Structure formats: C-alpha cells, structure tokens
Amino acid sequence: MKMKNVVLVCAAAVAGLGVAPKLFSPTEVSFAQEKLPPPSREATQYSFAPIVKKAAPAVVNVYVRTRVQTFDSPFANDPFFRQFFGRALGRPSERVMSSLGSGVIVSPDGLIVTNTHVIKGGGDTAIRVALSDKREFDAKVIAQDEKADIAVLKIDGAGAESFPYLRFDDSDSLEVGDLVLAIGNPFGVGQTVTSGIVSALSRSEVGQSDSQVFIQTDAAINPGNSGGALVDMTGRLVGINTMIYSQSGGSVGIGFAIPSNLVRIYAESAAGGRKVERPWIGAKLEAMSHDIAEGLGLNRVSGAVVTRLYDKGPAAAAGLQAGDVITQVDGVEVIDARAVYYRLTTKGIGQTVRLTVLRSNKPVDVNLPLIGAPKPGKDDAKNLSGNHPLDGARISNILPSVADEFGLDQTDGVVVTSVRDGSTAQTFGFQPGDVIAAIGKNQIANVDEAEKSLANRQRLWQISVRRGGRVLQLQVPG
C-alpha cells in the first residue's frame, strides 16, 4: 500500500470525576465486557452523549510556541546542502513557531499525555494547555520519547487543585468492530467528537520505530487531533491518536492510535520520576517474508525471525537459536518483530516472558528474562566539543545494545546518540542514529579515533555519514 502525506492527528477522552482512587492501580484497568449487537432497530437510537459529557472536561488543547534560530547562508540554494542539513547556516535570526495539538489529563493532579511531535521544538519552548471550561494553564514537559511518540506534561502551578481526568482501559481487550469515540480539536475549530469502530489491531507497517504498533480506527480524526485520546464504550482511554493515512491532508477513515497499555507505562513512570527503559534481548529480529517462509518450509508469512544472537546475551542464554521464528509472546500472537518488541516493552524489565517459537517447524517454548541493555563504559561514549561540525553531539561505540536501540545492522563504528539543542551539530543537521563513517581520509572505528580526527581544525571539513541506508557527504569550510 502506498503511503502518501501521512498527517499527524489526535483526539480526546473520557474522564472519571470525583475523588480518585490510587493512581494507575491495577483495579482501574477494566477488561473486556460482554459484547452484543444492538437488540433491536430502536436500540440504534441510543446516544453517546452521556459518555461525551463525562469526557469533555479531561480533554485539553495544547498550544506550543517555540523561539527558534534560523540562518542565512550562501549555501542555502544548494539542494544537497539543504537535504543534509535540514536548515541553512550563516547569520542567525529568530522567529516564533506556533503549533496546536491535543492532550488528555490522566490524573487528578494534572498529568497530561500527548504526542512528542506535538510539543517537540528546539530553542525556547512555551507550552500552554486550555481546558474545555476555558481555563488555561502553563505546562512543562516531564518525560518524552521520540521513538514511541509519547510525551507526558504536568500542569504548572496548579497547587492542590483537582482536575477531571481519564482512566486507562486495557487496550489488549479491544476487538475489531468495537465502537470507539475520538474527541479533540481538529484544525483548531474547537472540541469535536467523532465515532467509529476499531478497524484493525497491531498495525506495525506505519511505525517509525521497532516498538511501535497501532490501533487502527475509522473514527474521523484530522490535523490538530494529535495527542488526544481514543475511548471505548466504558468511557476509558484505549489509545492516543497520533496519525492518519491521507492523500489530501484530511481524514479518509484510516487513523492510528498508540495503545493505552504502552501509554500507561510512560504515564506511570513519569509520575514516579522514572524513565521507561526498553528490555534488551541480545538478538536481532526481522519480520517474516515470503522468501524466508519458503526457505524455512513454513506455510504462513507471520512472526519474527531470529537472525542474529549476541554472545552472552539474554536470548542466547535462554536457548533461542538463529532461525527460530517467534510466533507468540505469553500466548499472544505476534505478526512481526515490532509486535514482539512492543509486547516486551509493555511487559517491562524484571519480568520473564514465554516465547513460543517454531524450530524445524515444531513449536518450542522459551522463557526469556527481560533485562536492561548494558550501559556503555566511560570510554565507550563521549560528548564532543570544539571548533568542528560535531560540537554538541554525543557519540558512542556501536555496542550490541546501541545497535538494537538505533536499529543498526552493524556493531562496529561510531554512532551519534544525542544532539544538544542549539549546538553546532544540530545546526549542521546531525541526528541520533547517524553513523560517522569517516572524517577526512580517516575511517572511524571508535570514539577515540573520532576525537583524534576532530582535534585539529581543518580548512575543509569532510565527514561521511551513514543514515537510513544512504551515505551523506558533508563538506564545510573550517
């Protein structure tokens, strides 16, 4: 299916009012109720109004104003320069960028979940949220994850005030055909409610990271809905709407939401001052293809193939073998590698999962303990500074865990792991995941070689970068 002009969107959610029980307690997560078709024609006259009335107070509009620096440059008309850097260089100037999205209050003390792409911006960023009762508050970001596209905000200066909030439901209890509502602020026209059904589950083809799977819905969502909620008929949060498939920029009935089970993990971690850490299994997984299935003698193109095992990694220690096909995680079917990573992330570090794998066309169960990725040693990662294009970047040797994090096929070389806002490296367009292949005539095998190659100022900096399967060449006067 050809994807074109994927527009990011959102919706809003249903709130439970009154005194809140213990936040995110297991009893708050309701499970699937008995599902029945309408008993009569008259039953189709039922209204969603009671759900919407409870939901509206928990739906917020998120306004973001960012002051960013732009640059005038004699290189601005060079198409390759623009493609690599994403912005121009030269004399700095400042401008204000504004964006509009949605969010959902998920705790009585003003914790809000939204999308990272709604609040992301370099420079000086101010975030303001507007409630449905017209009250407005400043908010601050307390957690965000670009790969998951989830951000958690906290209303600033709320004091002892209690806010209406939306409770989480178990997104695994959803079934295709279930009714859902989307509530948000499309195109900035004001709070809007749309209804639809769950069109599909575990959609991973449209994700940009290895742990993203989505709920697909035909409830109409449009630009401006990003960061809002998808709610079920119990009036609870089952997903955060994040993008749509569209060729025109408007809704065509194909929208995608991040499942609430993943969103809840980020909200709980942010509320407790913790960072979400994805499990590291020490293996490389790939989606099943027709060729692989034929080679393994399988009659189904489904599952995740173990293509590589790292010595002394958890997967190897648990007994996984190269060529195994993971078909289930704790009894839940997985269709590809992203579905496996999603299941492991929602399970959490410290737990053990039961993997069902096909080995020589026979099912085998493997118990896999979930641990965090080994941390780089003090000499494996360094912050770069100096009079060179990589000033402000943090680089790391490509350890197996780092390769897993950034989806790299190699375990040798140096990768950019972060870029400081406003730094020279950001200005030149370097991104996390960029592999520094060469600096000048020097091939870069580790961070020490990178530092040595950057130590002496050059009349012309020449840096080769591998990004997304392509090699980009940077040439800038020193």
Query: What low-confidence regions span 5 or more consecutive residues with pLDDT below 50?
Result: 1-23, 26-32, 74-81
- Broad CATH class of the largest domain: Mainly Beta
How many structural domains are formed by the residues? Answer: 3
| Category by helix and strand content | alpha+beta
SS element count, helices: 10
For the record, give the distance between the C-alpha atoms at the N and C termini, rounded to a whole number.
45 Å
| Biggest sheet layout | 7 strands, antiparallel
Oligomer: single chain
Task: Sum up the overall morphology in one term.
Answer: globular
Strand content: 35-45%
Overall pLDDT confidence:
81
Helix-residue proportion: 10-25%
Number of strands: 28
CATH topology name of the largest domain, in short, is Thrombin, subunit H
Give the radius of gyration.
24 Å
The CATH architecture assignment of the largest domain turns out to be: Beta Barrel
Verbal overview:
Helix content is about 15%, strand content about 35%. It has helices spanning about 50-55, 80-85, 115-120, 260-270, 290-295, 315-320, 335-345, 400-405, 425, 445-455, and strands at about 5-10, 60-70, 90-105, 110-115, 125-130, 135-145, 150-155, 180-185, 190-205, 215, 230, 235-245, 255-260, 280, 285, 305-310, 325-330, 330-335, 350-360, 360-370, 370, 380-385, 395, 415-420, 435-440, 440-445, 460-465, 470-475. By secondary structure, the protein is an alpha+beta fold. Residues about 1-25, about 25-30 and about 75-80 have low confidence and may be disordered. The chain folds into three domains: about 1-275, Thrombin, subunit H (Beta Barrel); about 280-370, Pdz3 Domain (Roll); about 380-475, PDZ domain (Pdz3 Domain, Roll), CATH 2.30.42.
